[in-house]
Amino acid sequence: MEVEEAGGLLVAPSGPGLAGDLVDSPIYRNALKEADLVLADSGLLCLWTKYFTKSSVRRISGLLFLKNLLDGNKWVQDKTLWVMPTAGESEASMQWLKDRFPEAPENRAVYLAPIYAKAGEISDDELLAKIEKSKPKYVFIQLGGGTQERLGLFLKQKLSYKPAIICTGAALAFLSGQQAKIPMWADHLFIGWFLRCFNQPKTFIPRYLKAFKLIYLLFKYGSNCPSLNVGEA
Fold first, then answer.
1. How crowded is residue 164: how many other Cβ atoms within 10 Å of its Cβ?
2. Cα distance between residue 233 and residue 228, in whole Å
């Protein structure tokens, strides 16, 4: 099923998200289970399956998916809503879309996300009402991992219709230059994480160091879902 055409929830969980939120957050785990399509975004996961199992998983990053979706032009005549983290990133990214796809009508709506709780369920009635009123075909959630999946699950469960809910994190910010520019060759070589660490070391080096816990989880649980830690409501 093509989520971008039939609607549904698409997520692209990162290595750090799988290493942490998958075992610490029941809501995050449920979001992955309830998603209509889960992309294998984590290069670490794909490399592990290649070298330690008899099967392999083709990596499709959130960046690659979003770029191909945008370049395919199927979305340009449809209503879209972009959930963005900041006003500055929103302005720059919307201008990039306008410059890159001048044939698209001005039917792009933007919602500046509040600061959601770091754990537990996410509920945003204002966003829900905005989507229900305008009925966009595509809802692009451009928030951080661990948050966007929980928000996507909330929208999937509460909306009265089935838009394509695309959770690709900072992918649009990569394309528009608001975050570290990741060439497609770097994405194909699984080194986008390195460029992010080089660009913002204080933010991303600690984050990606935590991702190495995923190796332990893969060796311990394999293809099974790891046990949840107790503590989140």
1. 24
2. 12
Whose structure tokens read 């499709």? 60
Helix H, strand E, coil C: the string for the chain is CCHHHHCEEEECCCHHHHHHHHHHCHHHHHHHHHCCEECCCCHHHHHHHHHHCCCCCCCCCHHHHHHHHHHCCCCCCCCEEEEECCHHHHHHHHHHHHHHCCCCCCCEEEEECCCCCCCCCCCCHHHHHHHHHHCCCEEEECCCCCCHHHHHHHHHHHCCCCCEEEECCCHHHHHHCCCCCCCHHHHHCCCHHHHHHHHCHHHHHHHHHHCCHHHHHHHHHCCCCCCCCCCCC
Render pLDDT for 153-176 as a digit per residue (tens, 0 to 9): 999 999 999 999 999 988 898 888
Which tokens belong to 152? 């996507």
Say what the pLDDT of residue 196 is. 60
Check if the beta carbon of residue 44 is closer than 8 Å to that of residue 15. yes
From CA 197, how far away is CA 191, in angstroms rounded? 10
Report d(CA 138, CA 173) in Å as an integer: 18
Question: pTM for the complete prediction?
Answer: 0.80
